[in-house]
Amino acid sequence: MEENQPKTGKFSLNYGLILGGLSVVFGIMLFTQELHTSQSPALMIIGIVMAAVVTFIGISNFRKANKGFLTLSEALKIGAGIALISAIIAIVYNLVLTNVIDPDTPSKIMDARLGPALESGEITQEQFDLQKEQSIKFWWMGYPFILIINVIIGLVLGLITGLILKKAKPAY
């Protein structure tokens, strides 16, 4: 008799869509408050906490669906899958934001990043202009970086959650 095993891909997709949706809602909230160019560590922490909570819930629900059993491998797959799906959604949102909604977003972000260095005299106006121009020119290179970093974070979150929740099936 064949048992119906839950699929890690299904949980990755569902919870990745949830996390991606939450990220887009959070991004829209930041945009409406004109905080979308902020480099605040608090905003990064909020994003990581959202990812940790959704990943934990996704892996925990997989374990429940799997009759209380979870391997570390399954937790890693789900964590990385959730992160990958949510990163793809975040990249699509960022593409829409920077190309349709507010095409000046890259320029605003670079002003926020480089402005303090210019004001303090660490860089000249020419250096500021050159760095800003080059950064905007190669803005697209950030998207693969977003994917890679998100998957690494997803693997770490999956590992931590897996170590907490893992329970092997009995050998018999």
From TrEMBL:
The protein's name: DUF4199 domain-containing protein
Entries under InterPro entries matching the protein: DUF4199
Keywords (A to Z) from UniProt: Membrane, Transmembrane, Transmembrane helix
Residues spanning the signal sequence: none
A Pfam family the protein falls into: DUF4199
Record field: transmembrane: 12-31, 43-63, 75-96, 138-165
Species: Flagellimonas aquimarina
